[in-house]
Amino acid sequence: MKTAFVNNPSKYLMSASEKGAIPGGIVVAPQILAVEEGAKVLQNGGNAMDAAVTTAFVQTVVDRSNCGVAGFGTMNIHDAKSGKDKIIDFHGTAGSKATPEMWENIVIRENPSGYGYTLEGGVNERGYKSITTPGTVSGLYEGLSRYGTISWEKAIQPALRLASEGFEMSRGSADSWSTSPESSPWTKVKDVPETNGAVIVNKDMAEVLRKLATDGPDVFYKGEIAKLIADDMEKNGGFITIDDLNNYKAIITEPIYGNYRDHKIVTNPSPCGGITVIQILNILEEYDLEKMGHNSPDYIYTVSMAMKSAFADRANYVADPAFVDVNTDWLISMEHAREWKKKIDKREPIIIPRWQPKESPTTTHVSTMDSMGNAVSLTHSLGSSSGIITSGLGFFYNNCMNCFDPIPGKLNSILPGKARVTGMVPTIVKKDGQILFVVGAPGGTRIITGVLQSILNVIDHKMSAIEAVSASRFDCQGDVISIQSRVPLSVCEQVRAMGHNITRGFSSYGDMSLVHGILVNRETQTIQGGADPGGGGMAIYIPPLM
């Protein structure tokens, strides 16, 4: 029997009859239409992976600048039946025609924001040379084929329908889409006066999705679509070749594990952000954060210095492990964490090297759980989008080349087939062997600090899911602590008196990543979903099927 949606849940009674089971399922993401379609999958008996992949495909249609089939990403999976965790990484990789030294003589500067590098002509930021081999289609297929229960075709159908028949946009979304490329495939069908928005269709993308649904991912990497992509790249000086597409495959790997106050942290390895999250938690393990009080001056200073320490290591040691020997065991060891703690306690300066790229905030995320206890935390992105659309295909390509180091011989320098570092860090927190928190976010390298603080909010401050993703946040990856405007000026002044610069932003929400999480509280027998109020998303709960 089908059951109704329950929007943005805060409390649902659990059934404790089966270990690991939860009462129904939840989908939480920044796009309402995508959440609704993922929730329908759970409603009709699908599992967490089915819902995650369906949601992700819809996100590629309704959120064109933040994600797409020509993007990249990573997902964290808990399989309830086996009790095992897996990571599927589908990073964008530099094309075969890219070379380490090709941009070293056109570097103007590292961007003041810390995001990427300014090169003459902006060739790494926009256009064909900014594009890496796309991974999203491969990653979603691997996830669904290994852990899903519905067909690939069925998972794509909601996105195909929305691209073909149209989807309603709010005025706010329409404003963000105001700039379109020439011959834009996105067409307004009609105005919607009651929402002051419009219905948008994309027939070209609908046709791509139709071919994907019918012919599988091979059409994108080895078939008709692959040929169109490769020909366009060749014609316009891109680095991607047909062989790059033919040989691309998502990477199935093991997560890395940390421990924080008797909780197991399950997260992703290098070149993603998991090492950095575990490092920060290790440094904070021996501080009494609960006693300090949430976002007190001592709390902000201490957590910021732990962030700064881990980001220094990130700049010096984290890269694509297929090309660089990353000493993960040492980086996430408690011995190393205690070395940083000594420096923090002595107020020693912590230096983060320059030329450290940061990822664009234009990314998206979905967290899902089902009634059997399966969970998926999936983050995917276009970087900040290349602005390129191949005629007839209807989607933007990523611009992942913008965050490679343009100087050869460095940790994250350009090499064919290499992935650059990313802040993506879909994470699962467990307590006593069972899932407590499923969390992730878009937001560049501030994904790391946003996910971190939501974990602290749950474990140290006993917050609900909604409270954990909504509480005011801060970030420190350099010489300045950045903080949301909801933190009082008096608190900022006290932090500044401790010897560290702090800047309060203009936004009450947002600018510090958009965290989306699911919290399972087995003591109170409740399950909660939290969508960051800085975005436009929500959580939908599906009660158990009867």
Describe what this molecule looks like in 3D.
This protein has 546 residues and is an alpha+beta fold. Helix content is 32%, strand content 20%. The protein has 17 helices and 22 strands. The strands form 5 sheets. An 8-stranded antiparallel beta sheet has the order 1-22-2-13-14-3-4-10, covered by helices on one side. The longest helix is centred in the middle third of the chain and has 21 residues, at 297-317. It starts with 5 loop residues before the first strand and ends with a strand.
Chain-wise SSE layout:
Blueprint: E1 6-7, E2 25-29, H1 32-43, H2 48-62, E3 72-79, E4 84-90, E5 107-110, E6 117-119, H3 136-147, H4 152-165, E7 167-169, H5 171-176, E8 187-192, E9 197-201, H6 203-215, H7 218-221, H8 224-235, H9 242-247, E10 251-253, E11 256-260, E12 263-267, H10 274-284, H11 289-292, H12 297-317, H13 328-331, H14 334-345, E13 363-369, E14 375-381, E15 427-431, E16 434-440, H15 446-459, H16 465-470, E17 474-476, E18 480-483, H17 489-497, E19 501-504, E20 516-521, E21 526-531, E22 538-542
Parallel strand pairs: 18-19
Antiparallel strand pairs: 1-22, 2-13, 2-22, 3-4, 3-14, 4-10, 5-6, 7-9, 8-9, 11-12, 12-15, 13-14, 15-16, 16-20, 17-18, 20-21
